[in-house]
Design goal:
The chain is α/β, with parallel strands linked by helices and 102 residues long. The protein contains two helices and seven strands. It has one domain: Metallo-beta-lactamase, Chain A (4-Layer Sandwich), CATH 3.60.15.
């Protein structure tokens, strides 16, 4: 099973414990925006899990990220996460639409 995290806190232990309890792998770390206060644990969590850090269109960073295209679909088991920044007044902000398929 694969799971994702949105804007993880700096303390990564709870995310690792949840994944372990569920026998899951954290596949994506979705960042809704750049955290000017640097409280996100995305870099640490990615290093510990091998998960891909995903930002919205126009994002740049000094570390490995996946810059999602507008309306790009990310597959996660039986769910699809659609990433968009369409018509946003804020640049580099990520909006998520999640579809669950049965």
């Amino acid at each position: 099973m694969a799971i994702f995290s949105i804007d993880p806190l700096r303390e990564t232990k709870p995310y690792l414990e949840i994944a372990a309890r569920r026998g899951a792998k954290i596949k994506y770390i979705l960042e809704s925006h750049f955290h000017a206060d640097f409280v996100s644990g995305h870099i640490s969590l990615a290093k510990k899990t091998g998960a891909t850090i995903v930002y919205g269109p126009q994002a740049t960073a000094g570390y490995d990220i996946h810059v999602a295209k507008d309306y790009e679909n990310l597959k996660l088991g039986n769910a699809t996460i659609q990433v968009t920044n369409h018509n946003s007044i804020w640049i580099r902000v990520l909006f998520l639409i999640i579809f669950f398929l049965n």
